[in-house]
Amino acid sequence: MSLQPVATNDDDATTLGIEIYARLRRDLIAGHHKPGERLRFRQLSAAYSVGIAPLREALSRLVSDQLVRFEGHRGYTVAPLSLSDLNDLCALRTDLSCNALRRSIAQGDEDWEAEILAALHRLERAPLPHSVEDRKTVDEWEQRHDRFHYSLIAACGSPWLLHFCGALSDHFQRYRRAVIVVTSSSEALLKRVREQHRTVAEAAIARDAERATTVLAEHFRGSVEVVIRNYEEVSRSLSAGNGDDGR
Amino acid sequence: MSLQPVATNDDDATTLGIEIYARLRRDLIAGHHKPGERLRFRQLSAAYSVGIAPLREALSRLVSDQLVRFEGHRGYTVAPLSLSDLNDLCALRTDLSCNALRRSIAQGDEDWEAEILAALHRLERAPLPHSVEDRKTVDEWEQRHDRFHYSLIAACGSPWLLHFCGALSDHFQRYRRAVIVVTSSSEALLKRVREQHRTVAEAAIARDAERATTVLAEHFRGSVEVVIRNYEEVSRSLSAGNGDDGR
DNA sequence: ATGCAGATTATGTTCGAACATCCTCTCGAT
DNA sequence: ATCGAGAGGATGTTCGAACATAATCTGCAT
């Protein structure tokens, strides 16, 4: 919050392990690896041009992040998706995010308000991807969307709550991006989402906690429904296409 | 929940990395490493008799668990303790645990009830340590205490919520054990805690969500207060004894 | 043809050494 | 005396090879 320290941080206190962790994490959330897929070292080593040691480090952390699974002597696999996990995820995210929003509204200062407006502006200005193939545009939109939702709850004053909200948000994004294979968003849906974003922001800044949390919850419910609808469609087409259930 | 799969799992699908992760985690929570202390590889390697590779793996996971911190090229350190973190931790834990308890009460079956009673019994039968030096007894008591609290919320039906409650519980235990250097527990306090445990269990099984969550919240508030009182005492004596603030 | 034992290959795990970075201590100049 | 440059040691990082385990294939017996 407030101003960033001006240090451009050109000194890289970074290591290969850190870098590959960030890259893998992004790619996992973006869905560039299929759920359940084995993450072989040689394969990853070639794809990301890093040795095995940094890879193990990154994958270990991703296990604790619940993005990959690990079984001794049998290697790492991409964490699977499931409808029950999706439902659990979303219910808790709504709960925690609304909680955090309420606290933010109670405690947020002017910088918090300003950041919301800035993030909202950047989100509204983000170009919409024409297809899911257009990775760069999708990535950019997702980042701005994330940042907007983060800005809403940033002033809640609880690092732990922010951390959990972040984790849930990341996992939800994984479902969203894994499942929405067509830009199935009708013009009406897009408009409603945009309005919800704007309304939440306005209500938050107006310190109307009731309205803000209500609309935010609605917004989540709407997103989840779309994702679930797509999820069912995708898994139906999968089980129809071949007997492979992703194992 | 229900019955464990009978497989004794004598086949060790375990690796050195997994083992050392579990051991380090336990020791970190038990406070065998001082907050802020550097975790040097050679040192750990000697102490735990493992190579550096498994160590890096374990430490990486512990970073995502927030139990250790990492700075590139400067190594790993034990995550620091702070009053603000403690307060944050506890507030959220109360919130989430009560939430989970409410859901458990709404959904729990007879196995859930039975498990609570079993865990309560084991907790009440656990011998109290005469001093904090008596590690084995402390460990045993903490484990049973953990298990009791887990049993209360086990039927909430949300793996994510359970996961978060577990993380917060582990971190709180770290504070508790780091800070309570004397068995300062008066007989009255002990009795009250025992009664709270019993009351929560009874109310939960009687499906009295209001009463159960109220008492659970009280129980947490009480524990936190004791820990905070001890924390302030410990940090005061530290800053009085020498200028070292743990850095 | 089927099923099982042994051999072969693929893969994950661990170690030790080479390398890079950071920290500390020394020494000399101001 | 203070500060900064540079040398030396300590520590973290990465790689490649050796080792262990799991998965696959082969061929023989039924």
Describe the SSE topology:
The structure is a homodimer.
Chain A: H1 16-30, E1 38-39, H2 41-48, H3 52-64, E2 68-71, E3 75-78, H4 83-107, H5 110-125, H6 135-153, H7 159-179, H8 187-205, H9 209-241
Antiparallel strand pairs in A: 1-3, 2-3
Helix pairs in contact in A: 1-3, 4-7, 4-9, 5-6, 5-8, 6-7, 8-9
Chain A binds a DNA duplex (30 and 30 nucleotides) through helix 3.
Describe the protein.
The structure is a homodimer of 247-residue chains. With 247 residues, chain A is mainly alpha-helical. In chain A, 68% of the residues lie in helices and 4% in strands. The first copy, chain A, is built from 9 helices and 3 strands. The first copy, chain A, has helices at residues 16-30, 41-48, 52-64, 83-107, 110-125, 135-153, 159-179, 187-205, 209-241, and strands at 38-39, 68-71, 75-78. A 3-stranded antiparallel β-sheet of chain A has the order 1-3-2. In chain A, a hairpin with a 3-residue loop joins strand 2 (68-71) and strand 3 (75-78). The first copy, chain A, is globular and about 55 Å long. The N and C termini of chain A lie far apart (43 Å). In chain A, 30% of the residues are buried. Residues 1-10 and 242-247 of chain A have low confidence and may be disordered. Chains A and B meet through helix 3, helix 4 and helix 7 of A and helix 3, helix 4 and helix 7 of B. Chain A binds a DNA duplex (30 and 30 nucleotides) through helix 3.
